Amino acid sequence: MSHTLSRRDFNKLLLSGVAASAFGILGSSNTAFASSKRVVVVGGGFGGAAAAKYLRKLDPSISVTLIEPKAIFYTCPFSNWVLGGLKTMEDIAQTYSALKNKYKVNVIADSAVAIDAVRGTVKLKGGQVIGFDRLIVSPGIDFKWDTIPGYSESVASAKMPHAYQAGPQTVLLHNQLLAMKNGGRVFICPPANPFRCPPGPYERASLIAGYLKAKKPLSKIIILDPKEKFSKQGLFKKGWERLYPGMIEWRSGSTGGKLVKVDAATMSLTTEFGVENADVINIIPPQKAGKIAFDAGLTDATGWCPINPISFESTIHPGVHVIGDASIAGAMPKSGFAASSQGKVAAAAIVRLFQGKVPAAPSLVNTCYSLIGPGYGISVAGVYKLTVEGIVEIPEAGGLTPINADDDQLREEANFARGWYSNIVQDTWG
Amino acid sequence: MVVKLRVWLTVCAFSSVALVSGNAALAAKDSGGSKPAKSAQGKQVESNPRGQVLALSCTSCHGTDGKSVGIIPSFNTRSSAYIEAALKGFKSGERYSTVMGRHAKGYSDDELRLIANYFGKTSNNK
């Protein structure tokens, strides 16, 4: 077909919804000029909550049901601030009352256990079956528990927290830090790429160092990293030297950073270079898309979900959109900001698709602020566009806080980090 | 075969993206001063869909509709002209910023105008 269709004809064809549908942009054609506009959103994190809110805001004639088992959602962004004693769990708690009351989203406190993409139904743990015309799946991450010998879900919940889904795990790690002796050794073990929030483990080391420097100054933090480099590396290392000299040691994969096994009974870790005894061990395991994405057949061999980046519609199941950490979004990192951005883009696309129109080409953005100290903030930003290669970063845009930024700018970025949090949670849940 | 077809369809969908993008931007430009559609909340969807989808990114830091609740500046009461001038100033570096310059450089001047038009309309051009 591509041999007989000139570029100009193709361009013309795209102007008609029929052609767009044929080329997979509109997905299932039964939703063009839909009379029934029911959207179910599975998962109430940054992606799902933003999608639910914006669907209702952009087109109040769409009925939206949000499936989320937790009444309170603790955000991963700023959970490192809790570990450093700068915020409380209450500060990072979000609820669904504004979505329910202000935006009239039907919020159901249950979990999705099965998705029938062909019939258009979601089955809930409680037994209820809900029909949809379009579905948004925003399941976040799940952990690959079997990748580190000696580590398991039960070890994580009792002795070696991951604290990479905020909530009880954050509290456990925080309590371990509070109980640790002065002179203790804290190990943070990030995974290889790709994983949720690439700068997260390093902001975590920074803010834990802030607490230890003030309260337990003889202590040390050792980062065992399978990677050879990490997000905002130059900025973090400079900040560590300035604020916490000698306190944080980062070991790369080739210098003993790779974990061979862990032992919860003796609280020890074995690397390729030897055995380390620890007082607190924070293992951040390798990750994959949340379970429901696997159960619904939305994942590919990578363990993540392939999507059409113009609408975040699954390339496997038409009519089902996957957003957030679980999606394969090209150059975009897996972050709360990215998920929220994708949720809004998917919402805008669905509004257009229900009208039988082609979605407008989005631009996607990400900004990750990290705090090294209370008045010392850094950021990485990215603007992304769609090309034939998928979602790519625009090279002229984005980038890092300058490495030679002065103290005023670093303080300003720390303040903007707080401002960003206030606004993104308001834009997503408020 | 099925896999091959899927790959082919995916390629089609991807290659159409750039074209759709061009068309959508053009359509939005042509209908620059068009009248809002029936649904009150959906008016920008009708008149400036590309501006809308670009603008949705901004609210993650600046708050829904550009109404900030924290230290980051609001622009919900600003005119389209003000917002467009500010964005272009960030892009060129004439206007100081920590992160806005890094964002503004990701957009063409036309795209910045579409964003400014979208927010300027929500603010009633005060």
Biggest sheet character of chain B: none
From the 3D coordinates, which CATH architecture of the domain at 45-122 in chain B would you assign? Orthogonal Bundle
Q: Helix content range of the residues of chain A, please?
A: 25-40%
Largest sheet of chain A: 5 strands, parallel
Please report the total strand number of chain A as a whole number: 26
Backbone CA Rg of chain B = 17 Å
> Low-confidence parts of chain B lasting 5 or more residues at pLDDT below 50?
1-45
> Please, what is the average pLDDT of chain B?
73
Description:
The complex is a heterodimer of chains A (430) and B (126). Chain A has 430 residues and is an alpha/beta fold. In chain A, 30% of the residues lie in helices and 25% in strands. Chain A contains 12 helices and 26 strands. Chain A has helices at 7-14, 17-22, 46-58, 79-83, 97-101, 153-158, 168-179, 200-215, 233-243, 291-295, 336-354, 407-429; strands at 38-42, 63-67, 73-74, 93-94, 106-108, 112-116, 121-124, 129-131, 134-137, 141-143, 185-189, 220-224, 248-251, 259-263, 268-271, 274-277, 280-283, 287-289, 305-308, 313-314, 320-322, 327-328, 364-373, 376-387, 390-393, 399-400. In chain A, the strands form 8 sheets. A 5-stranded parallel beta sheet of chain A has the order 5-2-1-9-21, covered by helices on one side. In chain A, strands 13-12-11-17 form a 4-stranded parallel beta sheet, with helices on one face. Chain A starts with 6 loop residues before the first helix and ends with a helix. Mean pLDDT of chain A is 92; it is low at 1-31. With 126 residues, chain B is an all-alpha fold. Helix content of chain B is 61%, strand content 0%. Chains A and B meet through α1, α3, α11, β23 and β24 of A and α1, α3, α4 and α6 of B.
